[in-house]
Recover the amino acids of this structure.
């Protein structure tokens, strides 16, 4: 059993973090992760039914732990640590060896968690499929002081009631910011720290590996984006990619738009 010790009330530093509100999402542009939510500051493992709780060693300093997840074989636990430190801001991937109660970081992996948990275990428990920050993403866009033009929307047809939502996209500049932060590079991350990139970067909201470990089902968001609904209702395509040799080259696939 994994025991998570949660932090109390958010600190002033937590509340002072930057926040973007786009497409029905609220996220921290500094960390590429959620801007609000409870996090754990320490972890323990306990064997059932009568084992003693053992505090894990090797956890990050000033830990802010989210998305803890057991491997299918029950021997490992993955979690994401949130760091807002200037020299190491972002989401990092950590692996716990349950037998030794030791945690370690997988180096060189910057995760993108604005849609939620960025990683899913593979069925062999030897790796995870993750949404990562593209290495060539470049500098963040800057808000323009002068609008490029009006935002025109037409209401044609019969009169119908419309639901109201918060934090929606409002203009093409919002779309540009959303694409920048939401775009991720899918990768297979192995427990030895190696990784294999999967195809091109895109706005992937979900990634689910198949039970046999040969396919990954991806849900990708596409333009045109709506200004009336949150991202859950944005046009998307589901893509099945097959990776038989671990090279990262798609050897088959199907696409279905929803």
């Amino acid at each position: 059993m994994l025991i998570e010790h949660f932090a109390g009330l958010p600190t002033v530093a937590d509340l002072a973090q930057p926040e973007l509100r786009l497409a029905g999402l609220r996220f921290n542009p500094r960390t590429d992760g959620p801007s609000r939510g409870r996090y754990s500051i320490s972890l323990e493992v306990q064997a059932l039914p009568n084992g003693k709780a053992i505090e894990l060693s090797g956890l990050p300093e000033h830990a802010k732990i989210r998305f803890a997840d057991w491997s299918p074989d029950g021997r490992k636990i993955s979690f994401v640590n949130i760091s807002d430190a200037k020299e190491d801001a972002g989401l990092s991937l950590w692996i716990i060896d349950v037998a030794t109660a030791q945690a370690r970081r997988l180096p060189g992996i910057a995760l993108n968690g604005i849609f939620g948990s960025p990683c899913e275990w593979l069925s062999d428990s030897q790796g995870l499929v993750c949404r990562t920050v593209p290495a060539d993403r470049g500098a963040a866009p800057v808000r323009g002081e002068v609008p490029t033009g009006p935002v025109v929307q037409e209401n044609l047809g019969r009169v119908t009631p419309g639901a109201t939502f918060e934090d929606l996209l409002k203009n093409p500049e919002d779309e540009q910011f959303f694409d920048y932060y939401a775009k991720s590079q899918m990768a297979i991350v192995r427990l030895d720290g190696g990784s294999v990139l999967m195809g091109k970067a895109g706005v992937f909201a979900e990634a689910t590996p198949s039970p046999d470990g040969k396919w990954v089902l991806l849900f990708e968001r596409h333009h045109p984006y709506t200004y009336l609904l949150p991202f859950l209702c944005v046009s998307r395509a589901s893509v099945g990619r097959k990776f038989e040799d671990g090279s990262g080259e798609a050897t088959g696939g199907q696409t279905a738009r929803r």
